[in-house]
Design the sequence.
């Protein structure tokens, strides 16, 4: 029933969806989900997985900037903005995709000494990610991202840290030093 499908009748778009890690749970919550990714192989993997588990998700190998007039009740983009060439244009495109009264969720690494150590140096040294995956200089601080969003006519309503500890794993916290998640609305 409605309790298990809180997003029934709502549309959602995950920009930079990868293999569908967020798109699939959104679809299970009842949303009509569109997933965009710049990498064709991600889209192919996501499509294959969604079909295998019986979820109808509209995956597309396009950039959000190319969406023409479609809007969504929920716009999400996790760990994407730090990779784009023009963050301001990216944010403007996210704003255009947001339906009136809609909600946006963005996460990105913060540009701090800790993130440089943990996400760039350690991860690359340990071979967890290919060298050059993260350009620390492109990471945005919460203040910088808030200003970009404000310029696009958007308002941040909540900012939470995404922290990691061995007992809890990934969790929301008040510590913004590594990654943070912003809740954003129009106006």
Sequence:
């Amino acid at each position: 029933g409605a309790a298990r499908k809180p997003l029934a009748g709502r549309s959602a778009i995950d920009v930079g969806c990868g293999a569908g890690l967020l798109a699939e749970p959104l679809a299970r919550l009842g949303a009509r989900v569109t997933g965009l990714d710049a990498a064709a192989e991600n889209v192919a993997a996501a499509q294959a997985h969604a079909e295998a588990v019986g979820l109808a998700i509209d995956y597309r190998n396009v950039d959000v900037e190319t969406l023409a007039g479609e809007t969504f009740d929920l716009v999400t983009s996790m760990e994407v903005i730090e990779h784009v060439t023009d963050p301001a244009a990216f944010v403007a495109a996210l704003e255009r995709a947001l339906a009136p009264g809609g909600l946006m969720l963005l996460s990105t690494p913060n540009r701090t000494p800790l993130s440089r150590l943990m996400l760039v140096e350690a991860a690359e040294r340990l071979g967890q990610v290919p060298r050059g995956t993260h350009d620390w200089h492109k990471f945005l601080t919460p203040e910088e991202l808030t200003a970009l969003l404000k310029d696009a006519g958007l308002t941040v309503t909540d900012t939470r840290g995404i922290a990691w500890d061995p007992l809890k794993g990934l969790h929301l916290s008040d510590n913004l030093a590594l990654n943070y998640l912003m809740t954003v609305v129009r106006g």
Notes: The radius of gyration is 17 Å. The first helix runs from residue 23 to 28.
